[in-house]
Write a structure and sequence with these properties.
The chain folds into two domains: 108 residues, Enolase-like, domain 1, CATH 3.30.390.10; 223 residues, Enolase-like C-terminal domain (TIM Barrel), CATH 3.20.20. It is built from twelve helices and 15 strands. The chain is α/β, with parallel strands linked by helices. The structure holds magnesium ion.
């Protein structure tokens, strides 16, 4: 098995703003595993929120990863490789994707089949309106017109958040999910949830800082809208502690570190009757397609990271009438979209 890797800078169509940061690009790292003429691909889209950076990922890879001799069992292979990633979840999941992409191609099956997911049950995805220049809102809403659901980033304080929502509501009556990205305090949360409930909003994601579960529990008692954990739901270990505090979880592969861990989170949330959303970072079609293979197993998809960039080098999952359409090829089913010398 041959390992290669390269970094790549994805460029945002509009500066991508959330309550705590704005970026016009992100650096991702592609990991490739090749053997017997089969190429497995994975993507790491590290998030600074979790102290993960592409430069650190390249450092770990440059130091060398020891690959097992053969891949007879993808789980056993993963168990030898992932612990070498120095705890960087984005790199772990890049390997998880590449290993399963390679394995499923070898076995002649799409990844969704390996994961036990029915592609006809893939959900609709939301399209994100990030925080930024208010004058851009009409243009951003127009870009999201083909989607049935918008995800609106807020968390800037009551006045600004209401101004953002009012500006969007002037343009569209589409269903909206809001994400405060830890930006509110309790009073703001209580008033905003009441206010948003009258404006065709489906749920609120991560109202408060992840350390503030006490206020989250308090808000949940008063909020007419369900609360979904994101920064409070990194991996399966977080789920027991937020049961009863949030109504649901947002699973992101870049946070949880493997497709198998993602499956475990789905199972644990189902056992607890919690709602499940599948989200993403700003990433290209390799990472988004990997997540999309899990999407038939969840309630809500927010898999639009590849749609918010203008230089996606890969093509995989598509969106038709707002719904995710999984590629039917074996493995991830992704292919190179543009000729980039360093990419394979
Ligand atoms: Mg979020």
């Amino acid at each position: 098995m041959k390992l290669s890797y390269t970094s790549y800078r994805v460029q945002c169509t509009h500066p991508f703003g959330i309550s705590r940061s704005t970026h016009d690009h992100y650096d991702v790292v592609y990991v490739y595993l090749e053997q017997d003429g089969i190429l497995g691909r994975g993507e790491a889209a590290p998030s600074g929120r979790y102290n993960e950076y592409a430069s650190d990922i390249i450092g770990v890879l440059d130091n060398g990863i020891v690959l097992p001799e053969s891949m007879d069992d993808p789980i056993a292979f993963s168990e030898k490789v992932l612990p070498q990633c120095k705890g960087i979840k984005a790199l772990e999941v890049a390997f998880s994707m590449a290993i399963l992409d390679w394995w499923c191609q070898k076995e002649g099956m799409p990844l969704y089949q390996y994961l036990g997911a029915d592609p006809s049950k893939a959900p609709k995805t939301s399209f994100t309106i990030s925080i930024g220049d208010m004058d851009l809102i009409p243009e951003k809403v127009k870009e999201g017109a083909l989607f049935h659901i918008l995800k609106v980033k807020i968390g800037m304080g009551m006045e600004k958040d209401k101004a953002i929502m009012n500006a969007i509501r002037q343009e569209t009556d589409q269903l909206i999910r809001v994400d405060a990205n830890e930006g509110w305090d309790l009073d703001t949360g209580i008033e905003m949830c009441e206010w948003l409930a009258d404006r065709n909003v489906e749920f609120v994601e991560q109202p408060f800082k992840s350390i503030n579960l006490k206020d989250t529990a308090e808000l949940r008692k008063k909020s007419p809208l369900p609360l979904i954990a994101d920064e409070n739901s990194l991996n399966s270990g977080d789920i027991p502690g937020i049961e009863g505090v949030f109504d649901g979880i947002n699973i992101k592969l870049m946070k949880c570190g493997s497709l198998i861990e993602g499956l475990k989170m789905v199972k644990m949330a189902r056992e607890r009757d919690m709602q499940i959303m599948l989200g993403c970072m700003i990433e290209s079609s390799v990472g988004i397609t990997a997540a999309a293979h899990l999407s038939p197993l969840v309630d809500y998809a927010d898999l639009d990271g590849n749609l918010l960039i203008n230089n996606d080098p890969y093509r995989g999952v598509l969106v038709e009438d707002g719904k995710l359409v999984l590629p039917r090829g074996n493995g991830l089913g992704v292919s190179l979209n543009s000729i980039e010398e360093k990419l394979i």
